[in-house]
Amino acid sequence: MFVYIPKGCLPMWQAGGMLLMASLLGACASQQHTVAPAVAPTATPAATPEEIRKTVVEYPCTQGAHRGDSVLYVENTLSAIRSARQDPQYKFIEFDVQYSADKQAVVFHDGSLRRIFGERVKVKDATYEELCQLSENQIPTYEQVMTLAVGKPLNIEIKSQGNQADDELLIDYIMTDIRNRGIEDQTLISSISADAIKYVKARYPEMPTGQIFWRKASTYLPFDFLTEGLYQEIDDSKADYLMLHVSNQLNIKDLLRFKPKNKTLVFWDFDNTMYLVHKDPTDRLWSDPEETRASDITRSHAHLNPPSRRSPLAKTEAASL
User: Fold this and answer.
1) Is the dihedral of CA 276, 282, 288, 294 positive or negative?
2) Do 210 and 105 fall into the same domain?
3) Residues 6+ apart with CB under 8 A from 294
4) Are residues 180 and 274 in the same domain?
5) Are 69 and 175 contained in the same domain?
6) By 3-state DSSP, what share of the chain in percent is helix, strand and coil, each rounded to 5?
C-alpha cells in the first residue's frame, strides 16, 4: 500500500501530519515498497517523557520512592526498599503486594516474572518456594519488606489478580498487620481496582486510599468534562488521592483547576519516583499533621508543569499497571 502525492502539493504538508500519516499506514504498508525522501517544513520535535520530567517546576511536591529505590536496585527487592528507607530524599516508600499460589503475600509488581526474571510464570500460579527458585530469592515477602520499611510513611499498592474475594482477603491480612504495628496514620492503601478501594473505605474508613490510573483521555482531549470525570471516578470509589502516570502531567493545569480540596494529586513514573503535588493546604502526605506549612514541603526538581497538552509522547513502557 502506498500514498500518491501529486506534484506541487508536497510543500503544503506539515511535518507532523506526515508523521501521523506514516504511523497510520505503517502497519499495512508492504516492506517491498519504498518511498523517495521528501523535504518538509521543519517541525518542533514531540516532547519525550524525559523532557517532560525535566521541565520547570511550578508546584511544591513531596517525593516518594516508587517500588523502592528502583533505579539503583531491582524494583521491590529488599535492597531497593532498604536504600529508599535510608535515603532522605524519599519521604515515603511505595511497594506492591499480591498473593502467590499458596497465599503468601509477596512484594512484586507484575503479574508474571517475564519482564524482571525472564520466566513465563504468573505469580498467582506459583508457590512462594517456586517464586524464590525462579527469582534467585529476589522476591521478598510482605513481612520482610515491612521489617525494613517501617519508619517512613508507606504506600502499599494492592495488585489485584482479578478475584475480588482474594483481594479482600489480602487487604484484611495487610490491615491486620498495619493495626498491630499501630501505623494506620503512616500508611496509604492504593490500587488500580476501584472495588478494592471501595472495600478498604467500607471496612477500614480511617485509612487514606489512592486510586491509580494509566494514561487518560483528558490529557490529550481539551474537554473539561473529561478532567472533571477523573475526580468523579475517585469520588465514587471514595479514594483520597488521584494517582496518575507522569504522561498526564500534560494536563496538570486543568487537573489542579478542577481538583476538589478534599482530593490530592500524585504522579508516578516507571522509574523510582512519585510526586505528591501540594496546591491546597489539605494537600499533604497522609502521615503529615494538618497544620503542615508550605515551607515544610520540599520542592521537586524533576517533574511538573510540562509544555503542551497536545504534545504526543514518545515510546514508553507498557508494563505500567
Assistant:
1) positive
2) yes
3) 60, 278, 281
4) yes
5) yes
6) 35, 15, 50
Same domain, 31 and 148: no
* Contacts with 83 (C-beta within 8 Å, 6 or more apart), sequence order: 68, 69, 72, 73
Rounded Cα distance, 96 and 243, in Å: 14
The residue range of the domain holding 17 is: 1-43
CA distance 52 to 273: 14
pTM listed for this prediction: 0.76
Q: Write out the three cell numbers for 137.
A: 530469592
Q: Are both 101 and 228 inside the same structural domain?
A: yes
CATH of residue 207's domain is: 3.20.20.190
Query: What's the pLDDT tens digit per position in 87-103?
Result: 999 999 999 999 999 99
The closest of 50, 45, 46 to 246, measured between CA atoms, is 50
DSSP per-residue string spanning 231-296: HHHHHHHT-SEEEEEGGGGGGHHHHHHS--TT-EEEEE-SSSEEEEE--STT---TTS-TT--GGG
Distance (Å, whole) CA 20 – CA 6:
19
149 plus 216 within the same structural domain: yes
pLDDT digits (tens, 9 = 90+) for 33-63: 333 444 444 444 444 545 544 443 468 999 9
